[in-house]
């Protein structure tokens, strides 16, 4: 028989645990589905220096264990399983955690819509493990990784996916940014405030970033660009010491202290394909999405001058928070703030259903 929950939080990063702390403290029976990588992106980093409340900084995994403990303190039940299928067409919403034999959970978030549909169809033949009155989607977005030799080995030892988070650790150092879009430009500019020199590695002969961002980068005397260049390897010992690149087909090894990968993020939302509205990049659309479609939704939800349930998705009773919605900021504190907002929206929405 399916287990009933009032609030199902899918995802266990800063957004999910914060949402659970709020709904549990509001006496709503809450279950967090933590996924196969419990704790989210901060489990892969070392020092977090920009989350308020930790003046000396805190290790990412330690902070996420504290989030989890705090949620459990208020009665959140945590299921260390991945949600493999959902049916959001009727309430209560159905949730499956079945993992068919031979399925690699690590690959689930990279499934194409067709693969996900096939998986869901096989799973949905059985009864769902859980049914929920409301859902908060907080499955995050993972940075796209080029997968070059040395990248995984030196992750958090000179390889970073977040310049806003880590630029300050590279004062007077030699840093590299891989990418050519707006995020890469933002990262290069953030690093230029600290680094001795920043080199942007870009595989084409022009950037796809907005003109204004390109101008800022190209006009910054601390930043140079390697055009038509690919990153082939990240070299190091205990930490990064260099990069091997191919510039116009010619290989070279350059000395480096930091390598920042800025080639985009992939929202971990494949399980919600055809269930809630996603934008063209896979981000969950809510009434507070910082995109044109989000603005349209917000306008449609205006009532007496206020947007009703800003964190609600296209499905009533399903809310979303954190990096899977946030096309812009992708910080632990913004994810936590959105988790809080989604919890308050869910709480108010549930109250109205009962009254
Ligand atoms: C290396 C690195 C260093 C960073 N350093 C900082 C920093 O110093 N400061 C800062 O503010 N930010 C930092 N960030 C960014 C920060 O980690 C993210 O903004 C934040 O974690 C987003 O929180 P979230 O809750 O939205 O998602 P996430 O932290 O991504 O958590 C999402 C969770 O959902 C789970 N999940 C996914 N799909 C499913 C499913 N189907 N079922 C169940 N669970 C699922 C995932 O396994 C994961 O546990 C860093 C990011 C990286 C990659």
Question: Any overview of this molecule?
Answer:
This protein has 355 residues and is of the alpha/beta class. The protein has two domains: 3-143 and 265-354, FAD/NAD(P)-binding domain, CATH 3.50.50.60; 159-261, 3-Layer(bba) Sandwich (FAD/NAD(P)-binding domain), CATH 3.50.50. The chain is built from eight helices and 21 strands. The protein has helices at 14-25, 60-73, 113-123, 163-166, 182-192, 211-218, 292-300, 332-354; strands at residues 3-10, 30-33, 47-48, 58-59, 77-79, 85-87, 93-96, 130-137, 141-143, 159-160, 174-178, 197-201, 223-226, 229-236, 240-247, 250-255, 258-261, 265-267, 302-303, 306-307, 318-320. Strands 1, 2, 5, 6, 7, 8 and 21 form a seven-stranded mixed β-sheet that branches. It has a five-stranded parallel β-sheet with strand order 10-17-11-12-13, covered by helices on one side. It is globular. The relative contact order is 0.17. The site of flavin-adenine dinucleotide has 39 residues, from helix 1 and helix 8.
């Amino acid at each position: 028989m399916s287990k009933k929950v009032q609030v199902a939080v899918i995802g266990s990063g800063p957004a999910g645990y914060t949402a659970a702390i709020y709904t549990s403290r509001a006496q709503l029976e809450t279950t967090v589905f933590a996924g196969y990588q419990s704790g989210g992106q901060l489990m892969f980093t070392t020092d977090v220096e920009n989350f308020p409340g930790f003046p000396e900084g805190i290790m990412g995994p330690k902070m996420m264990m504290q989030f989890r403990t705090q949620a459990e303190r208020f009665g959140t039940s945590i299921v260390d399983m991945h949600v493999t299928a959902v049916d959001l067409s009727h309430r209560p919403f159905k949730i499956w955690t079945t993992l068919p034999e031979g399925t690699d959970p690590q690959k689930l978030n990279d499934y194409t819509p067709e693969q996900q549909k096939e998986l869901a169809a096989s799973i949905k033949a059985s009864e769902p493990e859980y049914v929920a009155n409301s859902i908060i989607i907080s499955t995050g977005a993972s940075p796209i990784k080029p997968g070059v030799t040395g990248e995984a080995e030196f992750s958090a030892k000179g390889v970073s996916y977040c310049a806003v988070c880590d630029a300050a650790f590279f004062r007077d150092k030699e840093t590299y940014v891989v990418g050519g879009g707006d995020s890469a430009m933002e990262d290069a500019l953030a690093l230029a405030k600290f680094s001795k020199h920043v080199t942007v590695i870009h595989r084409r002969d022009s950037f796809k970033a907005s003109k204004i961002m390109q101008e800022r980068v190209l006009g910054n005397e601390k930043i140079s660009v390697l055009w038509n260049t690919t990153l082939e390897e990240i070299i190091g010992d205990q930490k990064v010491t260099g990069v091997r690149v191919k510039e116009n087909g010619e290989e070279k090894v350059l000395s480096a202290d930091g390598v920042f990968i800025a080639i985009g993020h992939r929202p971990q939302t494949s399980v919600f394909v055809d269930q809630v509205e996603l934008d063209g990049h896979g981000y969950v659309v809510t009434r507070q999405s910082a995109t044109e479609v989000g603005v349209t939704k917000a306008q449609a939800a205006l009532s007496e001058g206020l947007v009703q349930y800003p964190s609600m998705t296209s499905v009533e009773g399903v809310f979303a928070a954190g990096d899977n919605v946030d096309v812009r900021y992708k910080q632990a504190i913004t994810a936590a703030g959105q988790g809080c907002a989604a919890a308050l929206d869910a709480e108010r929405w549930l109250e109205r259903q009962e009254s």
